[in-house]
Amino acid sequence: MSIRRIAITGDPVLHNRAKEVTEITDEIRTLVQDMYETMEKAPGVGLAATQVGVGLRIFVYDWDDGETHYRGEAINPVLEISPVSQEWPDEDTESEGCLSIPGERYPLKRADKAKLSAMDLNGKHFTIESTGWLARIFQHEYDHLDGILYADRLLKPYAKEVKRTIKYEGWGTDGNSWMPGEDFLEP
Questions:
Q1: What pLDDT, on the 0 to 100 scale, is given for residue 185?
Q2: Which of these is catalytic: 73, 96, 104, 141?
């Protein structure tokens, strides 16, 4: 297993809908193990296959709410969410970041509840009903599989700020990535 480079916004794999997994092969198993290692090293609480340059509908997650430890992979997930509040997002409790926009955090309103249905590496189908941060993680990673980054959902003042940051950093073009455990690097 190995740690993989994480694509930075602008790489086409991040901005296109990922393809369904048709068969769980040894290559898929290796990819998922690499994704866990990459996520842990980054560190993050979720990671989509698109973020490591693979356009398949897979994400992994690892989060502890203080009572329960949630860790798993979601292959070909389907996500149902509750309505999203139209209130302004709270900067302290609703800010999130993204490993594909490294080092940045912005407030974003998400649905309070999410129901994830997917398959694990053994081909077993499962469903998890979630609230709070776990629901946020599922929504964030699921968006990646549809080619949506959280920056694409930000309200106007935050959207303008992240666009300035992306331009300043020289991101927003194909080929930028970074290696967890090292400084942010260009290819």
A1: 47
A2: 141
